[in-house]
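User: Predict the complex.
Assistant: Input components as received:
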Amino acid sequence: MKADVLVLGGGGAGCSAALHLAQRGARVVLLERGLVGGQASGVNYGGVRQQGRHPAELPIARRSREIWGRMKALVGTDAEFTVTGHLKLARNEAEEADLVAYLDTAKEYRLPLRFIGRNSIHREYPWLGPAVVAGSFAPEDGAANPRLLAPALARAAREAGAVLLENTKVVSQTRDVDGFLLVSEAGDEFRAPVLLNMAGFWGGAVAEAFGEPVPVSPLSPNMMVTEPVPYFIEPNLGVVGGNVYLRQIPRGNIIVGGGDGESDPATPWSRPLAEVSIEAMGHAVRLVPSLAGVQVIRSWTGIDGEMPDRIPVIGPSGTTPGLFHAFGFSGHGFQLGPAIGAIMTELVLDGRADVPLEAFAISRFAGPGDGGGAKA
Amino acid sequence: MKVAVVGAGPAGIRAVEVLVAAGLRPVWIDEAAEGGGRIYQRPPAPLKRDAKALYGFEAGRATSLHAAFDALRPQVDWRPETLVWHIRPGAKQLHTQSGPRRDQVEYDAAILCTGAMDRVVPLPGWTLPGVTTLGGAQIALKAQGCGIGRRVVFAGTGPLLWLVAYQYAKAGAEVAAVLDTTPFATKLAASPGMLRDAATFAKGIYYIGWLRAHGVRIAEGVTPIGIEGEAGVSGIAWRDPGGREQRVDCDAVGMGWGLKPEAQLADLAGIPFRHDPLQWNWVPERDVAGRTAIAGHYLAGDGAGIGGAAVAELAGARAALAVLEDAGRMVDAAQLSRLDAALARQQGFRAALDRAFPFPRALAAGVADETILCRCEGLRAGELRAALAADHAPGPASELNRAKAFSRAGMGRCQGRVCGTAAAEIMAAALGSTPEAIGRLRGQPPVKPIPLVAEPVA
């Protein structure tokens, strides 16, 4: 099968790339080893959060937030995106100082943020426990249903003319004078002059195949959900340090994340860890004491790729013309996914993107004298 | 050697008996306060009654198991009222919750004897107060000494349907009707096979005959229409084999269509499953001795595929012997061959029983759009069907877990244990596929809900 662009990986970012490329008339083929949104994009917490991000990510997050706002028009569903605001909490003076320091970053990137000090935090949110000393509220942020986003983007991409192949595991990726050649486990061949590596944790192996290995490791955020209880937690809650985050959906269930489960990306297989779940439960109850006794009905995890500096690899390959990377979102790519697809489309079709990407260059991991080695 | 046995029903009791006889002191865990399992559940002390009244023909078996349990209890690390909510097969750890207390149990070998639950088909009105499963109705009688209503209808199919109806009538409850979805002819056709266990077969015939003789209204080959009522049950309607609509007043309904394995721990342990064409259930794979593909993990009893209490006793003992064999211990060869022969004999009977009381696939596949399918999530069958349609906004779901992700079917407190069977039939019918191809709901911890607590007690 021949295409203009091959996309490896059907997460939110990959499906968004397929959609945006197809909308501009490119012939796109996306290959996904399982089902679209089957790993990090589909099993994450569902946070649509800009607050607290690395400054380099904020322009992308701002752009993505704009797409989230018109998701229904774009893909036919808003994926239950709800603007609840995101409330980041401090539990001691050091954490409070962290919140205060971020206000300047937010201002620089025009991210609306409201600091809530000791005197008002418990007045505004009487259900917060005494451990909380301050908060920072991002009114534009919220949450969405991660189970719906990637499939909805995939469906829209198909309708726009992209070909998305699920249960298609790629076993070899090479480039010759005719461009890229991907071969699936079933022996099918896919060719295109451009390849987008958006394969999450497995993106590391793709980069390595083209001579630019990166230190990506599997990350499995440990997630839980409770039975429904009367709705009272409106904002999406986080804490400085990130050892717990929780949100309640209007039907009453509370989604609690914190810590990491275990995984084997080769299978792929992933599972929450009991002791990690128990620790996150403790953090959650200390944050919101009235949650004590609420029943946890399910826990789960998936596999994402984590970079040592906890920001993704985004941009053109350092070794191989026509290859572009976007992987290693380090546990916080769900909000970014829609914009990543748009940005990759611009990189491919316009040769430039309207957001700065230098901080995400794959070359940051190239050791001295290790930048060459192109296989092409 | 550290052995953990999960479950203290017939399989668990006979497994522990073998282990203790070999000089081991296993950790033994059950959600109930006492041993016996759901089938031989004992009432709390103030409600103690005579075994014959509680268990009927099964009194001898029940008494023997209870005596065995009582004798074993001081010789093991017995953990009553304890839920195993997570298992980590690689590290060989069980995670338990008992009241506020959380523990971790390390083991070299685990025998999972996790039992079964009723297999349910959603009917209009099945979420009304007064509707319960056959197993639930039986436990109310056995453990609490009360019925689920004053005037009760039992509906469904399977041996338990007739047994529970008999037990209720015998206990003095008014049984308004017994509605079996299996036609008499189907049962008749399977009866030669059931003669392989003539005694059990005879008991079944006796229950049916007793009910008839006592004037209980009996209808076979029925198609349930729905359970009626506003705040509670007021009646049930069905279509007879001739297509005529029938109804009867009642204030409670016990319903169930056979049993399904409670195999969540086997699933979390990574044991592969297969769809059994006779039982029409997903069952964890194991050999006749209960060994699985995951070293150190053994299965016995109904949790390993429905076989009934007698099979469970044999299988429990056999799995414990397998644990000993695999640990390089000497086991009694004569005992092994006796158990293997007895288990083999039971297979033919069980197959005939499954043929006699088939799961009503068409009834499950045809659950009306407006009927609640997943009661945990308040999801109607039509909402699941919508998630399969080509015009569904996030795209059509092609397998059960994706349908769950889109529609929430099976996402609630019970994790699809109740609605999963019907959901798969609905999907299979809508997509022109089979439940086997549709797949099964992935198990996720906790096996059953556990509470959020700030500081776990350990």
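The longest helix of chain A spans residues 93-108.
Let me know if you want any component modeled separately.
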